[in-house]
Amino acid sequence: MLAHEGSQTSGAGHIPVLLQDVIRLTAPQPGEHVIDCTLGAGGYAEAFLAATAPDGQLLGLDLDAALLTRTRARLAPYGARAQLVHGSFAALASIAKVFPTPSIVVADLGLSSVALDNPERGFSFLQDGPLDMRMDQSKGETAADLIRTVSVAQLEHILKTYGEEPHSHTLAHAIVAAAQRQPLTRTAQLVAVIDGAYRAILHAPAGRKLWLGRGIHPATRTFQALRIAVNGELEALEAMLPQAFDLLKPGGRLAIVSFHSLEDRIVKQFMKQLCVRCTCPPEQLQCTCSRIPRATSVTHKAVQASPEEIAVNPRSRSAKLRIVKKT
Ligand SMILES: C[S@@+](CC[C@H](N)C(=O)[O-])C[C@H]1O[C@@H](n2cnc3c(N)ncnc32)[C@H](O)[C@@H]1O
Predict the structure, then answer these.
(1) Would you list the DSSP string of 168-232?
(2) Residues of the chain with pLDDT > 90: what percent?
(3) Which of 148, 155, 221, 300 could in theory staple to 163 by disulfide, Cβ–Cβ 3.0 to 4.6 A?
(4) For residues 156 and 314, what is the distance between their CA atoms, to the nearest angstrom?
(5) Integer angstrom CA distances of residue 280 from 276, 284, 287
(6) Is any ligand 1 atom within 6 A of the Cβ of residue 67?
(7) How far is the CA of 207 from the centre of ligand 1 (A)?
(8) 3 state SS of 251
(9) Given the DSSP bridges, would you call strands 104-108 and 253-258 parallel, antiparallel or unpaired?
(10) How far apart are CA 207 and CA 187, in angstroms?
(11) Beta carbons of 257 and 18 less than 8 angstroms apart
(12) Cβ contacts of 18 within 8 Å, gap of 6 or more
């Protein structure tokens, strides 16, 4: 499933997704310590700080330095109870070294609406801006750099794997060919190339706005794929999960909110491994491994937003929350 941009842009800052469920199911207690791996605008962080008052501490991480500055101001009233760090959750263990053992680690993956709504960040296919897409603008390759240097085969792989784009081959050809004629440095240029390629595929005349089934913009999958590639999002998630779980104290809760099937698959698989009861071969009638599961599942099935939440915050439509509790 895709995270649709059309539904992500609220224009009113970031509305935290599944917040009530996260708080209810992780059940923070006064004095507990919490790590928020994806601080964003601080909606989750503020709720955890309130629930762990008077002396619970929170460590918040984010890759986005500009957003971190805003959120620092929002959380200033909590003083030393909130420690905020610019960094990636891929390096969670080393960042959290000086923080007390947490009872809760939470990650609300993806992008904040604050970044998405800012055309200068290059995440939006609905607004023109530089083709950047880096969550951490202090380093690394932009989407424009990637498109300039990528081969057709590499781009096809990115679009197919990270965007589940059914026309990855045609789009990769069209994008690389366009970039060879003239560097693609703006989001509008990339959108125009994708639009042209899709019109050729669908034999759609120029002019009328082109939307695919269920209101999907033709650029949705390409933008998702490039963003995931530029930020190494899946690799970071895979690196973070075991570190987060190891940091937790016994009885601690790990809560992850994901927004597309690629992320959710990684989270689901990781949590399933933790909760496995028996590893004996299936043909063996009696268990001899006596395995003690490392965790129990709190959510069993992924928790999804209610119709009421989706009506208020359409971005929540694709969110899935999974939680395990450390044995
Ligand atoms: C969906 S927002 C979180 C919103 C937050 N829960 C709130 O209530 O405001 C996700 C945030 O995670 C950050 N992020 C994404 N990948 C990250 C990573 N590897 N390390 C740290 N932060 C990351 C993004 O910059 C973004 O601000």
Answers:
(1) HHHHHHHHHHHHHHS---BHHHHHHHHHHHHHHHHTPPSSSPP-BGGGB-TTHHHHHHHHHHHHT
(2) 87
(3) 221
(4) 30
(5) 11, 7, 6
(6) yes
(7) 37
(8) coil
(9) parallel
(10) 19
(11) yes
(12) 257, 303, 305, 309, 316, 319, 321
Q: Is 89 in the pocket of ligand 1 (CB under 6 A)?
A: yes
Measured in Å, residue 68 CA sits from the centre of ligand 1 at 10
Q: Look at the chain and count its residues.
A: 327
Q: Could you give phi then psi for residue 59, rounded to 5 degrees?
A: -105, 125
Answer positive or negative: Cα dihedral of 131, 136, 141, 146: negative
Q: Which position has the token pair 């694709």?
A: 318
CA distances from 34 to 29, 95, 129, 216 (A): 10, 14, 36, 37
Give the Cα separation of 257 and 275 in Å (integer): 18
Q: Which of 36, 39, 92, 227 maximizes ligand 1 atoms within 8 Å of its Cβ, making it the mutation to test the pocket?
A: 39
pLDDT in tens, 149-194: 999 999 999 999 999 999 999 999 999 999 999 999 999 999 999 9
User: Residue 273 and residue 303: Cα distance in Å, rounded?
Assistant: 19
Which pTM value belongs to this model? 0.94
Rounded CA gap, 176 and 167, in Å?
14
- Cα Rg for the chain, rounded, in angstroms? 21
Q: How far is CA 91 from CA 37, 44, 63, 257, in A?
A: 10, 21, 11, 19
Contact criterion met (CB below 8 Å) for 260 and 2: yes
Q: Phi/psi of residue 109, each to 5°?
A: -70, 170
Burial 156-174 (b: 16+ CB within 10 A, else e): bbbbbebbbbebbebbbeb
